[in-house]
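Ticket #4471: structure export looks truncated?
Reporter: QA, pipeline team
Priority: medium

Steps to reproduce: submit the single chain below to the structure queue and open the exported record.
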Amino acid sequence: MFNTFIQILVVLATALSYAALVALTPSRLVQALGLPMVGLLGLAVVEFAKNKTMCVHLPLRLALLFFLIFLSTWFCTFLVARIDKQTLRFAAEESHPDRRTYERLRQQQSWMAIVKIFNDGRWQIADPGTLETVAIAYGKLGDQERSEKIYQQAIMTAASDVQLRYRYARLLEKNGKLIVAAGQYERIFNINDFEPDPHFAYGVLAVKMGNRVEAIQHLRKAIELYPDGSPWQGEAKKLLDRLLREEVKGNGAPHLNRTRR
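Actual output as written to the record:
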């Protein structure tokens, strides 16, 4: 009974070791080295099926044990090396993170990891895109004040980046800081007055702040800049028509409840 149990263990362990070899090793040469083991394993199965003692002959027993030890040792070495390599890579990234590190963590939505690396302070970030990633991470974690400060740092490194300022203005607007957001839109218009999205967004913001004249002005500008027939041009036209109708009727500022990009 004991011998049968040992035989089963040897067969299973040998088969699993070879399966791991084929699955984890791209080298055809290394995979070919395991082929003799298949033949020996087949002989062992035949002996087992005949209800005889498996591996009667000493050379066959030694050969099976050799391949089993070889493949088990190789598999463990490969696995440890793989884990160690990955650990070293993550450790190196945390010690010397670069933009790719933050981009990878952002794709994985690992907001806590981004904040942790940033707070370590071992690497001074000068890239506006990376700083924006950190700002987004703080925002996702609920620290809107810190998120705004990091956005300000990003803007200081790329003062003429209209899209960066636009996203910052949207964040301010989301946080209820309408006047500060309006100031950012004004800076955007001074840098580049030919981007339709900021004009549309500021038009909606101006309505919220009760400035219907500026709202109409910027909505018209957005309609002019958007491609003809585009969905956002259509949205801007609907809002402008609504404002003009209410202006004629004298019903006051309209109630806006729509999703903007």
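Status: closed, not a bug. The export was complete when the record was re-opened. Leaving a note from the reviewer for reference: The chain is about 75% helix and 0% strand.
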